[in-house]
Amino acid sequence: MSPGRNKLIIWRYTDGRPGHDSQSLGLCNALGRCVDCAVHDIKPPSNIQALACLLRSRPVVNRELPHPGLIIGAGRQTHLPVFVSKKAVGGKSIVLMRPSLPYTLYDICLVPDHDSPPVLDNVITTAGALNTIVAKENKDPQMGVIMVGGPSKYYSWQDDVIVSVIKTIISKEIATWFVFDSPRTPETTRAQLKNIRTNGYHFRSFEEASRQELVTALVNATNAWVSADSVTMLYEALTAGAPTGIIPVPEKKPNKISSSLEILIYEGQCTPYKEWYDGQPLSPPAKQLHEADRCADIILSRLAERDRTKL
User: Fold this and answer.
1) More exposed terminus of the chain, fewer Cβ within 10 Å: N or C?
2) 236: helix, coil or strand?
3) Parallel/antiparallel/unpaired status of strands 271-272 and 221-227
């Protein structure tokens, strides 16, 4: 199928997790900005069901769908269904992030650079995870966004330090601040953030704020701050084109996220809190990220190349 002449049919396996959905939806949206697409969202079956379909050479869907040009999945639950569907009905199989099955089972693997993917013809290394953000030029000079993560296997957490840093940030320069937490944010941190009382301060818990509210705030913000543990949030801020600062979080030990962050700081993509506190202003990312669009272009080029080889 030529994406330039026909509608591109996409099967998108989605496990419902917001982070995974943002990646696969970001890619589908980018493809839709290039060609006419029809995206069919499919809930992945269990691995047992998927294996049964593999043995019968049947796709893992319970309804009639047009055969896909692309089969896309993000998240471990989608990996086997993507592979099984490719075997049953054809189309190019695409997984986002490091697959739990061998790389060679898929046509394309889009893997963030901090996961150190292997050098293979079917692997495309991305600057962070893909997302749905599309940058806009005209930003609100009086609006800022702060995104807060939480403790993880790589990072510990200190409520008082985090909240103190945030209070310092919102006391300077900008009139309106929107602060978003995440499912990893400790309830003790959330309680302190809720209790901040100052003009122009808005706390939005992940339990009540929609994904679209965060995206709208981020693309309009003239400044963004992200806690150091939150690599996904960081790449969303950079994709939005916002001058981005890093809220320090204690590391448990050197890790792939902190190593990636050090590279971004060295490249001028973001600014550590201490340097900002000492007087260095936040500056726009040295390189604007358009990773979803870049990957969409590569995928469509490979589809077109496949069609040419059939002529």
Assistant:
1) C
2) helix
3) unpaired
Pick left, alpha or beta for residue 197 (phi over 0 → left; psi -120 to 50 → alpha; otherwise beta): beta
Beta bridge partners of 96: 74, 110
Quote the tokens at residue 206.
């992940």
Q: Please name every residue paired with 145 in a beta bridge, in sequence order, or none if there are none.
A: 178, 224
- Other Cβ atoms closer than 10 A to 128: 21
Phi and psi angles of residue 44, each rounded to the nearest 5 degrees, phi first: -70, 140
With cut-offs at 50, 70 and 90, classify the pLDDT of residue 105.
very high
Task: Give the helix/strand (H/E) hosting 144.
Answer: strand 140-147
Tokens 């940058």 sit on residue = 135
Place of tokens 């650079």: 113
Predicted structure pTM score: 0.89
Please state, in angstroms and rounded to a whole number, the distance separating the CA atoms of residues 107 and 92.
Answer: 6
Cα–Cα distance measured from residue 307 to residue 2, given in angstroms and rounded to the nearest whole number = 6
How far is 307 from 286, CA to CA, in rounded Å? 37
| pLDDT for position 307 | 65
